[in-house]
Amino acid sequence: MTIILFTFFGRPVLAQEEVDTESWWGLMTSGEISPRWSLWLDVHHVPQLFVIYRSGITYHTIDKKVTLTAGYGYLGLTTPFSEGKLIRPEHRPWGQAVYRLPGNGPLSASFRLRYDLRFRQNYSLTELTDDFSLNYRYRFNMSLRYNWGDRLSRHFNFSNTLFNESLITTGPGPNPLPFEHRVFFLFGFQKKAVTFSPGYHVRFGTPNFGNLRINHGFVLWINWNYNFKNLKKHSLKEDPADKM
User: Fold this and answer.
1) What is the C-alpha end-to-end distance of the chain, expressed in Å?
2) Contact criterion met (CB below 8 Å) for 71 and 92
3) Among 41, 108, 222, 241, which is most buried by a count of CB atoms within 10 Å?
């Protein structure tokens, strides 16, 4: 509903629209260290836009309804003069909290709040400079997941995931994208500890008032949840939407 209102009712005041295609690739892992703790390692790549290598440590409550994560990410970003090459570094300390609504049926929901500190290297018209700028980014995510079980095949678990995320960026540094909204629709094919999640995504961004930037395309995420003592076993609750 947010996307429908933003797209259609926002059009009369938009002076310019940009529409581009992109693909989004991700490999996300969670290693269970103990009954309450897991290690987060992942990488996401959107060609000619960014690549991020992210790590973190996650605490899980006893009832598995809440998880708290803190970590660090390193990114390579493109610049206007690099012709799609990801030459601009970013250092990103971050933290998040996830709350899962209680329920025992096939439909589940979760809410996530993430906070990013973005230290990005500055650049001139033709090259990177020696200094960095700081921005603060707030990310609000809602995820809905329907688990079909083994209805397609007894050899794997099948599910669908839909989630919306709004991103608000502030801070003293240059801010080329103050607001962005993302929608992802994923198909999940789970075999033991690994889940393949192909799907489709749309990103709506407002570089400034009156302009709308739309990026959309294919998604493929791979999740591997494992236990350090048994790579095929993982008892902690974690979904693909937690790690995007």
Assistant:
1) 21
2) no
3) 241
